[in-house]
Structures are given as C-alpha cells and as structure tokens.
Write the structure tokens for this entry.
Amino acid sequence: MMSERLLQTGLYDISEGSMIYAEIMAYAAGLDLYFDELERIRSEIFFDISEGSEPGIFERLVSVCNTDKSPEGRRKSIMSALSVTNKDFTLEGMKKIMGIYNIDGDISEQDGNIIINCKNKLSEGEEKAINENIQRFAPLHKKIYVFGAA
C-alpha cells in the first residue's frame, strides 16, 4: 500500500535496489510482526473458545489469584471471573465468586462482614493474596474475610 501511494506521487523511484524500496521492505517486515501479533491476540480474545492461550494474560486481566495451578483449574477460575454479574453480590452469589479462587468452603455473615471458611488448606501467601483480591467483590459497607483450613 505504501508503494502504491508513493508511486502515485511520481516523486519516488521504488525499483528493487533503490533506497526507498529497502526502506519500505524494512517497514513491511516490522509491520508483519505487528499484524501477526495483533491477529494472535484477536484470535484469543474470547478465552472460552481460544485454543492454546496463555492463562497468565487472562489471570492478570481479571485479577485472579488462584489456588489450583493446573491448566484446567486456572481455566475454570478465569471463566468464573469473566461470568460474574451484579446478581452475584449476595451470600449465595459468593459461591460463584469463590470459584474464581478455586476454593470450597462455608459462607456466613458475622458483624456485618462476610466470612469464608475454606475447606482448602491455603498457604499464608495464598490466604493474604485472596483476602486482598476478593475485596473488589465486597459491597462497600462490608469486608470479606477468607480463612484457609487448619
């Protein structure tokens, strides 16, 4: 396309071996890399139908810190995070939100806060990360506390 535009002006010699030709070929090589990457991203934009996509990209996108490191657990976690709706901000809906972290447990309300007692054993780091991350799902006037199994 660039060659066509430049030829239309009548000002440029775009024959093979010319400096302009070499410059256009350099641009084309760089743009090919760009367009290939853009196509890869476009093909993987819908995580549920993408093939071979890197879960880490989507985990960062939806802020997932997940206890199940298997590919299927990571995929399930991302799908849960992408399917949260405004109806999930209830005690019952919290079960769906727990799926984001691949945790199983009991939910209760104490002193106006939501308490999740996990059946999963969580490391101190996992518990801290989940507690920080899950707050984005808490109603403004409540906090969510997650406790791993002893």
In short: The two ends are 65 Å apart (CA to CA). The chain has a mean pLDDT of 81.
